[in-house]
């Protein structure tokens, strides 16, 4: 399975790499709730060699963060003769074993792009992701993230080794893991990553604003608020326009940079929106990732809905961008009304509920439309809240595989994006992976990541008194 995860690299400060061998590789990893992406780089040439991406195998324990945390903190199950694997151990070994297999695949492909005669050697890694995914990776407790005030055991900014991560020994307070199975031990013993390989995990901002948001800010060019003029490079000046960043996915992270003004110093405001997995093609009847066969575009021609698929093959399902496109086209052509109710060419499923048939094998149900409405209202509510904190319309950066592919006009038509942002939008692709890749090469950018995390203010969107009213108001198209 191949998932598109293109991204735009930020500018990387100069680094002395004259002593590096052409075979020395760096690996950047972005652990998303739904998708994991791995990029391999030739460090001496700063050349990207390969990126592989897969659906996160942890979805078997829950599509979203909340369900996985609940699984992690549940009491151990007991069988007739022994204790069944604990939740936190299952989640840790699930992600580590998947990464091991992805590393093998990625390095095998990267080796074909190295100069002849050189054997690949991984010497450094940067692993980013949201706070929960990183907690599962490092086997740190998520017990205090199951309820308010949602306090993670650590906010990372961690230098460690791959062996310590794999064995759950990054911190003294790591959760005690079950013994790995013989299959896992065999996988670890045959690992393509040396156990002493240096791994850097960037800082998180809070429980639901992770290192992936910090890496995305690096890629989007966010400045450090209230930075001294002496920290600017020659030819640089302070950014005077606001920047708004949205990494839209299962857990959407939203960040607003507000520049200095005569009344206030510059600041970064961050919040998260629990948008659920609909944008990733999950929790949708015929949903699937953005891979070959997924419907990614719907048009209305000759009074019929026409479907375009990735790879232009027979439709197998509907990905997130196709879901947005379908809703926009069906709303415009009155297949559904503003409340999302199906009113035209209605079919019935076996349980009697309504749906619209897109192809003989793919349909969109009434519940699918409602799941989309709930997801888009969560994002819209967060964006509108942040926009109230700036008097000037910001430059809007959309990050994430989903955000890089959506049609902005269609996203605006269904109310996912505020109308004033449509013409001021830059689509960055997987900015989190791009930012993590940049951190492979630059200690200067690692310092900047720490400063961005320290200067960012986290806002609990659900704690705002009028949040519920805003959210409900935003459900309709």
How would you portray this structure in words?
- This protein is of the alpha/beta class and 477 residues long.
- It contains 13 helices and 18 strands.
- It has helices at residues 65-73, 87-111, 131-138, 162-166, 182-189, 211-220, 320-332, 366-387, 401-405, 408-413, 431-439, 443-455, 467-473, and strands spanning 24-31, 35-42, 47-55, 121-129, 156-161, 198-203, 243-247, 252-258, 267-273, 294-301, 304-309, 317-318, 347-348, 354-359, 362-365, 395-399, 425-429, 456-458.
- The strands form 4 sheets. The protein has a 6-stranded mixed sheet, sandwiched between helices.
- A hairpin with a 3-residue loop joins strand 1 and strand 2 (35-42).
- The longest helix has 25 residues, at 87-111.
Give the topology:
Elements: E1 24-31, E2 35-42, E3 47-55, H1 65-73, H2 87-111, E4 121-129, H3 131-138, E5 156-161, H4 162-166, H5 182-189, E6 198-203, H6 211-220, E7 243-247, E8 252-258, E9 267-273, E10 294-301, E11 304-309, E12 317-318, H7 320-332, E13 347-348, E14 354-359, E15 362-365, H8 366-387, E16 395-399, H9 401-405, H10 408-413, E17 425-429, H11 431-439, H12 443-455, E18 456-458, H13 467-473
Parallel strand pairs: 1-4, 4-6, 7-16, 9-18, 10-12, 16-17
Antiparallel strand pairs: 1-2, 2-3, 5-6, 7-8, 8-9, 10-11, 13-14, 14-15
Helix pairs in contact: 1-2, 6-11, 6-12, 8-13
């Amino acid at each position: 399975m191949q998932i598109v995860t293109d991204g735009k690299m930020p500018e990387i400060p100069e680094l002395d790499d004259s002593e590096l061998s052409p075979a020395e590789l760096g690996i950047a990893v972005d652990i998303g709730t739904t998708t994991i992406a791995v990029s391999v780089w030739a460090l001496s040439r700063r050349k990207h060699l390969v990126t592989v991406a897969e659906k996160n195998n942890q979805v078997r324990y829950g599509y979203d963060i909340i369900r996985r945390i609940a699984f992690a903190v549940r009491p151990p199950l007991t069988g007739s003769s022994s204790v069944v694997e604990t939740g936190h151990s299952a989640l840790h070994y699930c992600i580590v074993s998947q990464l091991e297999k992805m590393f093998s695949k990625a390095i095998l492909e990267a080796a074909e792009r190295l100069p002849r005669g050189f054997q690949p050697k991984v010497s450094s890694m940067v692993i980013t992701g949201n706070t929960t995914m990183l907690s599962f990776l490092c086997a740190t407790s998520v017990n205090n993230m199951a309820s308010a005030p949602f306090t993670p055991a650590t906010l990372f900014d961690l230098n460690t080794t791959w062996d310590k991560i794999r064995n759950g020994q990054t911190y003294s307070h790591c959760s005690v893991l079950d013994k790995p199975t013989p299959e896992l031990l065999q996988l670890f013993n045959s690992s393509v990553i040396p156990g002493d390989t240096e791994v850097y995990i960037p800082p998180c901002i809070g429980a639901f604003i992770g290192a992936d948001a910090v890496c995305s800010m690096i890629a989007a060019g966010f400045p450090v608020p209230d930075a001294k003029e002496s920290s600017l490079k020659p030819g640089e000046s302070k950014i005077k326009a606001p920047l708004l960043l949205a990494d839209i996915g299962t857990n959407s992270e939203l960040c607003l940079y507000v520049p200095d003004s005569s009344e206030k110093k510059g600041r970064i405001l961050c919040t998260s929106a629990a948008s659920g997995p609909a944008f990733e093609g999950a929790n949708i009847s015929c949903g699937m990732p953005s891979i070959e066969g997924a419907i990614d575009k719907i048009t209305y021609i000759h009074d019929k809905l026409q479907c375009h698929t990735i790879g232009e093959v027979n439709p197998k399902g509907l990905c997130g961008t196709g879901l947005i496109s379908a809703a926009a086209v069906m709303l415009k052509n009155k297949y559904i009304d503003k409340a999302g109710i199906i009113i035209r060419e209605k079919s019935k499923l076996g349980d009697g509920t309504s749906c619209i048939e897109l192809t003989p094998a793919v349909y969109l149900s009434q519940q699918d439309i409602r799941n989309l409405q709930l997801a888009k209202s969560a994002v819209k509510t967060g964006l509108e809240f942040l926009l109230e904190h700036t008097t000037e319309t910001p430059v809007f950066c959309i990050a994430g595989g989903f955000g890089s592919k959506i049609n902005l006009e269609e996203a605006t038509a269904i109310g996912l994006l505020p109308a004033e942002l449509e013409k001021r939008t830059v689509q960055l692709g997987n900015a989190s992976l791009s930012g993590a890749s940049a951190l492979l090469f630059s200690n200067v950018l690692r310092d900047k990541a720490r400063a961005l995390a320290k200067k960012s203010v986290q806002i609990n969107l659900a704690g705002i008194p009028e949040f519920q009213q805003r959210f409900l108001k935003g459900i309709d198209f």
